[in-house]
Every structure is written in structure tokens, then in C-alpha cells.
Amino acid sequence: MTPFTPYCLSLFYFLFFAWMGIQIPYFNLYLYHLGMTSFQIGIVTALIPLVRVFSPPFWGYLTDRYDGRGRLGTALWIISTIIFSLLFFTESFFQVALVITAFTFFWSPTLPVAEASAMELARKRGIDYGRMRLWGTVGFIGLSWLTGIILDKVHISAVLWGLLLLLVANIFVSTGIPAAKNGGPHISLKNLSSQILRREALIFLFIAMLMLVSHSTYYGFFSIYLESLGYSRSMIGILWALGPLGEVLVMFFSGRIMKKFGTVRVLAFSLLMAIIRWTLYAFAWSVPFLVFGQLLHAFTFGTFHIASVRYVEKLFPDSMRNTAQALYSSAAYGMGLVLGTVACGLLYDRVGAPVLFFLSALVSMVALGALVRERRRAGEAPVGE
């Protein structure tokens, strides 16, 4: 570990989630203005989590087994950036879908690999993971707000330029992030499968998947929904920036929060906040309700993600650090968003956003019920506490 590793990770998070701050609110608008239907937008949006179902575990396994020098992360950034640049020359649905699929295959593992390094650094050097990760939230807030202002004045194609510049910047930052060192023998496919098939592992991955299913209407169609209600792009940008604003405070004090309440209680509270948030969006459309709902993002994403990363760190052995974080990413941001986004793409034109947000609240309720039932069955088991 170099002395500058914490700063490299903080900058990595800033750039990575600044990219998300453009991609999530505005890339679908870009596709919409290319003339794609809501179903086609849903399919393209679903391709990203679909590839994340299998790509992060594949690369995570290779990293744990072979990448002792941490060079794979940088290689993945270079390849994914080159592929993404092809979007400047594609406009048809099938061309865009092909590029996004190839791009995501190489891009999606970069975050879980960095997460494994961040958790190792936090454990060995006593650095608060949340205080590194909060810079990702700062990046998301800044770029979602700034992009909204810019897009009121320039062509929607500026979205692609912003995304490309951030990808290029993270190529250089990734060179300062070493690979997480395994704390045991190299993993094999046999012991990998035995670890995954444990009941407590499967239940957690199921809960993580449902949480992201519940976010699918928000991630996939919130901007389109707001634009249909007459909100300007700058206002859409402000609302998106408000979402992670509370995350900064939550992540800054995440170490104290986890120590005081425990990982499982924080997971349960986050799921409860998701039920409340999606219910607000289902039944209220005024600005105050939207603002309040956006502030709850600090819990539905912020505390849930931090608790999940910590839970995974304790749930799997040290020899699976990269693979374990990749499995969480695959279940939540892969399978969860695939199922949710495809369903939203099929249903949005038929039932509308309010009904979809109500269904999201029901999904969060199922996830909370699964967590409570598992903890009652297991008693006060130490995993994740």
C-alpha cells in the first residue's frame, strides 16, 4: 500500500460516481431524443445490470486467483473506455445495445475490485471506508446538478462527452489502486460454490437483489417521468443532486453508525426507508414530497450499501475478497436491476410511474420480511453484526 492509496480511492469514487451522476439521470434522455421507445430504452438500460450478473464474479475470480499486482483494474478501464467511444458513431437501437453490452462487460468489475481494496485498507490502517466512499456521493451530486444546467443550454449529445472524459480520467487514477491481498490459499471453483450456496449467503444476496429491483423505476424512468410532468432539465438535475446529498453526512459518520447499531439493524432500517420513499412517489407529486423522498436516498442507497459491503466482508473468507464484493454487485446491481428495469420497461406505458413506485414499495417490504425472518431463524448470529 502506498501512502497515497486512500486519496487514489477517494478520487476513484469521485470520478466513478460522477460518471453515474451523468449516466443515470441523462443517458436515458439521450436515448429518448434518439427516437427510442420506452421499451427500447428499458432494454438498453437493462443490458447494463444484465451483464453485471456474470461479469463482476468472472473478473473478481480472476483477480483473486491471478492478479497479485493489481494491473487488471487499469486494463479494464482502458478497454471499456475505447469501447464506450464507439457510441459517438452509433444511433440505432441495435448498435447502441451492442456497444453498451461490450462496454459493461469490461467496466462493471472495476467498482467491486476497488471496493475490495478499500475494505482491506480500512481494516489494516484504520481508515473509515465511509469517508473514502463519500467522495463518490460528492461526485454524483456535482455532476448530476452541473449536467442539468449545461443541458438546458447545449445539445443532449453533451452527455456522451461528459461520460467519456470521466472514463479517461479514471484510467490514470486506477493505476494508484493496488489489488487486495488474499488472506488465505487461492480459491477454487469448488470452494467458491460451497461458499455461495450457504443459506445465509443466498438470503443476503436475495435481499440485495430485491432492494435494487425496488430502485428500478427510480433509476430507469424518474427523469422521463419528471420531464413529462413539466420539470426543466435543470430542476431534474437539482432533484437528482438532492438524492445523494444526505449520503455525505451518513457516510462521514458511517463508522459510528455501524458500531452503535450493527450491520443488520442498519440493513433493516434502510429497507424500511425504501418502503416509505417509494410510497411517497406513488401517491404524491408535489415538489416538497419529491424533495423529502430524494433525501431518503441517504438510507435507501447510502446506509444500505455501506452495511452490505461490511456484511459481505464478514460473510465470506479473506481469500474471496474480490469475488465476494463482485457477487454482491452481481446480485444487486446485476440481477436486481435486470429484473426491475425490464419489468418497468414493459409496464411504464401501460400503468404509469405511480403504480410502478407502489410496486417498488411492496418489493422493499418483501426484502425486509426476508431479513427479519432470517435473523429470527438464526438468532443473534455474529455474522454482519
Question: What does it look like?
Answer:
The protein is an all-alpha fold and 385 residues long. 81% of the residues lie in helices and 0% in strands. It is built from 17 helices and no strands. It has helices spanning 5-33, 38-66, 72-84, 93-107, 110-125, 129-151, 158-174, 189-196, 199-214, 216-228, 233-252, 254-261, 263-283, 287-295, 297-315, 321-351, 353-378. The mean pLDDT is 82.
Concise overview:
This protein is mainly α and 385 residues long.
Topology:
Layout: H1 5-33, H2 38-66, H3 72-84, H4 93-107, H5 110-125, H6 129-151, H7 158-174, H8 189-196, H9 199-214, H10 216-228, H11 233-252, H12 254-261, H13 263-283, H14 287-295, H15 297-315, H16 321-351, H17 353-378
Task: Note the main attributes of this structure.
single chain; 385 residues; mainly alpha; 17 helices; Growth Hormone, Chain: A; 0% strand; 81% helix
